[in-house]
Amino acid sequence: MSSKAIFYHAGCNVCVAAENALAEALDPNRFETEIVNFADAPSRIVEAESFGVESVPALVIAGQPFHINFGASMADVKAS
Amino acid sequence: MSSKAIFYHAGCNVCVAAENALAEALDPNRFETEIVNFADAPSRIVEAESFGVESVPALVIAGQPFHINFGASMADVKAS
Predict the structure, then answer these.
(1) Omega into B65 within 30° of 0, i.e. cis?
(2) 3-state DSSP call for residue B77?
């Protein structure tokens, strides 16, 4: 059975590098990976924060948030 | 052909959580993942720094470093 992995980003360079190398490196047999760009889906910001996401890019695996490098804070995302 | 992925950590709680959820989530068909604990392999610190690793836990994928959350700086690792 697949676990859910959600990669949240905001389109910044740090985010895109992490998306290309890391989010897409997950095992597709074990993870259903969804890519969420807040520029396209601002309504998902609240959901990301509910998982504890404080900055982007971030990868939430089975509900657990991992912040990868640092592109922008969620405060900056909300202000943009 | 597999790419090389190296997960560097120092045994801290933040590191172990990232190892369990993230390092082991990579696609084994595409990545040969090595786990390096500096407590066991202090000689690998120089190698990690050569990839640009500044803190642990960190995942280096095909030579590109990704810092995941924040467990300890490399300065702290070297001092411990």
Answers:
(1) no
(2) helix
Round to whole Å and give the CA distance between A39 and B30.
Answer: 30
The 8-class DSSP code of residue A23 comes to: G
Rounded CA gap, A46 and A29, in Å? Answer: 28
Least Cα distance to A53 among A36, A40, A31, A39 occurs for A36
Q: Does residue A1 surpass a pLDDT of 90? A: no
Whether B27 has its CB under 8 Å from any CB of chain A: the answer is yes
Instruction: Flag whether pLDDT at B1 surpasses 70.
Output: no
Three-state SS annotation for B6-75: EEEECCCHHHHHHHHHCHHHECCCCEEEEEEECCCCHHHHHHHHHCCCCEEEEEEECCEEEEEEEEEEHH
Distance from CA of B5 to the nearest CA of A (A): 10
Taking the Cβ of residue A30 and every Cβ of chain B, the question of whether any pair is shorter than 8 Å is answered with yes
Q: Which residue has the higher pLDDT, B1 or A2?
A: A2
Q: What is the reported pTM?
A: 0.91
